[in-house]
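Mods, move this if it's the wrong board.
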Amino acid sequence: MEQEEIKETKKEKKSKEKELIEALNLKVKELEDKNLRISAEMINSLRRKDEDNARVMKYANESLIIDLLTTIDNFERALNIETSNEDITNYQKGMKMIYDSLINTLSKYEVSVIDALDKEFDPTYHQAVMTEKVEGKNSGIVIEVLQKGYIYKDKVIRPAMVKVSE
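Not the wrong board. C-alpha cells:
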C-alpha cells in the first residue's frame, strides 16, 4: 500500500508540476505579447514624434512669411499709385527693387502666389467675398482678385480674396 500511495503522490506531484509549467508558459506568453505591444507603441510614438518634427521643420518660417505678406501688400499698393511727379516715380522705382527682392527671397523659400484670375472658384485656394453677374462669363469664375493668396511649399497660408461671377 505504501508503494501505491507513493506512486499516487508522485502522480499528483507531476500533475501539479505540469499545471504549474502550463501556467508559467501562459504567463510567459502573456508577458511576451505585452512586451511586443509596448515595443510597437514605442516605435509608433517615435515615428509620430519624427513626423511632427519634420512638419515643424518644413513649415518653420510660416509665421514670418505670413507677417511679411502684409508688407508685400503695402508695397503693391504703393507701386500701383499713378503719378506724374518725377520724384515719386523715382521713389517708386526704388520701392519696386525692394519689392522684387522680397518676392525673389520668398520664392527661394517656396512661397508662390495663387493664380486666381479667370480660374474656376476653388474654396481650397480662394475666399469669395463678392459676387457679380457678368455677361459672357460662366458662373463660378474668379473675375477679380481683391487680395493675393499665397502657398508656402504645399500649404495654403493665405487664400486669395476674390470676386466671383454669378
